[in-house]
Amino acid sequence: MYSAYGLNYPNYLFFSPVDQAYTIGFLGIRAQYSISSLYQNKNKVAAGKLRITGARIQQKAITDNVMQDLKSYLIKYQESLNRIAVNKRSIEQAQMNLRIVNTKYFNQLSLLTDLLDADNLFVESRFNLIKAQTDALAIYYHLLYTAGKL
């Protein structure tokens, strides 16, 4: 949108200039279009489509990586739960072994080193259970973080 207004003296609209002031004004709309943009728009549209396609491929790759991480953490979590069950069974067996060796030691049928070995095995199996539980908890929180829940 543009406009102009002017007061002109002398009047040059006639062949011989007239000694008279005149005013003139106009109002209009200006439209302008570059012909070269016809060629550039096609290229810009094509480049935009390529960027969108690239972004979709990148999004799909990231989604695939996240899903793969989720599956691997889920498998690790299930393995750690199995390790906890195995370690609980190991504690039961070590405790039973400690009772048997303790009874043998007090009946003077085994040596002190056997009793210490049985006690060491019991303590080690309890330690392994605690380690398996903390590993399972760490894997669980990694799983939640990867899933976006944490």
UniProtKB/TrEMBL annotation:
tRNA-binding among keywords: no
Keyword Membrane: yes
Lineage, uppermost ranks: Bacteria, Pseudomonadati, Bacteroidota, Cytophagia, Cytophagales
Keywords, in A-Z order: Cell outer membrane, Membrane, Transmembrane, Transmembrane beta strand
Protein name as annotated: TolC family protein
GO MF assignments: efflux transmembrane transporter activity; porin activity
InterPro entries: TolC-like
One GO cellular component term noted in the UniProt record for this chain: efflux pump complex
Localisation: Cell outer membrane
